[in-house]
Every structure is written in C-alpha cells, then in structure tokens.
Amino acid sequence: MIARGYSFILILIKSSGFIPLEYIYRSLPVSQISCSQSDHTMGSTIDNGENTSEDSSWLIQESQSKTDSRNSDKTNTVTAANNNNCISAVLTRWSLLVMAVLAFAVGHFSANRMEFPCQNSPNNGSSWQDIPHSNTDSQTTVDTEKAVLVTGATGRTGSLTYHILAKKGIPVRALVRNVTKAKEVLGCTFCDSRDGIFVGDVTQPEDLMNAANGVSTVVILASSDPRVPKEEQRAVEFDGVINSVAALAQDANRDMKGGSSDYLRVVLCSTMGTTRRSVNDHGFDLGEISFWKLNAEAFLATSGVGSTIVKPCGLLDGAGKNSTLVVGHHDSLFTTDPDHYSIPRVDVAAVISQAVVSRTHGLRFDLCSKPGPVTTDLEALLESSKWEWET
Asked: Angle CA(57)–CA(59)–CA(63) in degrees, nearest 5?
C-alpha cells in the first residue's frame, strides 16, 4: 500500500512539473528512503528511465555500512530507531501525497486558465440561459432605436454578450458564419435578417456593410486562432477590426446624427499580455495574435470613433458573478496579483455589455477577477478604469 501511495505521489509530482523528482529523492533522509526494498525498486519504474534507484541504493549502502561500524553493539537501539524512521517515512510520503495533489491541481489549472482571449470557439461552457443578469442591469438610458452589432456572436464570449444585450431590450444583431450554429447557440427562429442574424465574415468588408447598416455600436468579439496561418491571424485580428469600424462609420449611420461619427461606439475585446515581448513570459503562446490585437487597439485610438477596449486575462468557462472584478493597465495585474489572473467569460460579457449600455469611450483596461465580494456595480467598475487625472 505504501509503495502504491508513493508511486501515486511521484506520478502526480512528475505530471505537475512543479517539483523535480531528483529533488524529492535527494532531500529525504536516508532512513526515510530505505524503509522498504519495494520502495527502492519502484523508484526506477515510475521515473521513466531516470536512474534514481541506483542513487538511492548507494546512499542506503553507505548509511548501513557506517551504522554497522559505529553501532555493532547497539543492534536493538538501531532497530528501534529504524522502526521510528519507517514511521516517519510513511508520514513523510503521505505528506508528499498531499503536496503532489495540490501541485498537480495548480499545474493543471495554470495550463488551462489562459485560453485564447475572446476566441470564437464553440460555446461549451456557460449556457446563455443561465446568465446572471442582476449585476449587469443599469439605470443608464439606452437609445434602443439604434441597434448593436456583435461580431463573433456564436463564440463562447460572443453568445453570452449577445444574450445579455437582448435581455436588456437592446436591438442586437449578430454576424455569424454558420446559420446552423447560430440557431443552436443564439436561439434564432429564422436566423436571417428578420432575426437580426447576418451571415458573413469580418475579413469581407461587404458582409459587414450590410450587417452594420443602421447600428450605432459594434462589439468586436471575432477572434482568430494561433494554429491558423499567420495571414489569417492578421486578417481577423487587425484587418477585421478596420473593416468593422469602416462599416460602422458608413454614411447611412453617420447621417443618423447629422453626418458625424461622434455618436458611434466600438467595444473591442482584446487581451492582456500585449506589453510583453513574448507572451510565453506568462505561460502561453498566442502566436502573432496579441501583436495584431495591439495594432488594432492603436488603430481604434485614431479612428475618430469612440471606443472601449477590454483586455481580459485568462478566460474561464462556467458560472460568473461569484468574485471581485479588478481592472488595471499595462499588465500590472500580472505582478500586483499574480495568483489570480483569470476571469469567467460571462463576467467579461457582462462588462462589455455594460460598456455598450453606458456608451463609454476613451477606455482601455485590463480585466481580471479574484476571490472576494461579488462586484455588482459594473458602471462603477468602468469608471474606476479611468486614469487618475480623468476623475
């Protein structure tokens, strides 16, 4: 049983990648390593070829030789001490089991928490039917005569945003690439312009011109994938943003307010990590996506259209509305609160929807969550993202 437990410990430690096996073997006292011969031989079989059992045997033999030469007349005392050591070894190994389980859990979480920001991928996480809305409603008056277009609306974050806006009574449209998926994820009836559903692609300007005709706000949630060709990454992350803004600023929309673009708004879901020369610095690789997202942000700053740029950290599926939301700038949250840099998608969607409702502009902020009191005032959260000289 001890051997099985120790095997389990080492397998978990190795899979977690947090504690080197060599350190575990060399840090234990000799007496704890040599409690049973079965434990010695087990070491070499679970460590995938690393010759740890040979090192352990050498330590054991040397220890036993020295013990015999110094204590030949104290056999009973040594036996009792060895028994105590064996008990200590058992306790130590089961302590390691607890450590290994924790390390494995943390390692598994770290490997999965930083998903591709706002990736337009299947909605297999939070269900839009279970969206918590009590913390997303605002008293801010919305001009419901002007529709909002959501690109990437069948993605996980996109579909959540679409349904939050719809439940607020805002005329919301969706740019989708697949009608079947739209029917499944968005719950449309006709899944065409009668439902505000437009089939198209952000890389095709003409598709956007049709979908954005008559809207005052575009929420950009279409995103690429680091596994696709680099040209496609640029086409979606950078050119797609330019196409979306150009479609929003078409003559028909500017004419609604006397030919001015001042009334128009864009909300872009970007990503944290854009200050890093290499996104691998914080554990994942987005290819060139973060580079093109940053260029899209720079374009928005000079587009003449009021914009809000939300830069979430690692996106999580599952329920939201259960933590404290925090904002920051320039990836500062990576260092000020390094243990908590993930956020449920539904919370990101709620903040994006609040930006639409509040018609914010001139905001660009990082967004994460951490354990603590639930954030209920999203308008105040947006206000807190301003620079100190703006308040």
From this structure: 115
What is the chain's alpha carbon radius of gyration, rounded to the nearest angstrom? Answer: 28
Of 334, 242, 224, which Cα lies nearest the Cα of 282?
A: 334
CATH superfamily of 128-390: NAD(P)-binding Rossmann-like Domain (3.40.50.720)
Residue 220: name the closest of 199, 245, 193 by CA. 245
Of 6, 17, 23, whose CA–CA distance to 108 is shortest? Answer: 17
Does the pTM surpass 0.70? The reply is: no
According to DSSP, the residues that pair with 342 across neighbouring strands are 314, 369
pLDDT tens digits along 148-181: 999 999 999 999 999 999 999 999 999 999 999 9
Q: How many CA atoms lie within 13 A of 379 on its CB side?
A: 8
**If we measure between CA atoms, which residue out of 227, 236, 185 comes closest to residue 207?**
236
Instruction: Decide: 175 and 161 in contact? Cβ < 8 Å.
Output: no
Pairing between β-strand 265-269 and β-strand 314-316 as defined by DSSP bridges: unpaired
The Cα–Cα gap between 83 and 81 comes to: 5
pLDDT tens digits for range 319-333: 887 899 999 999 998
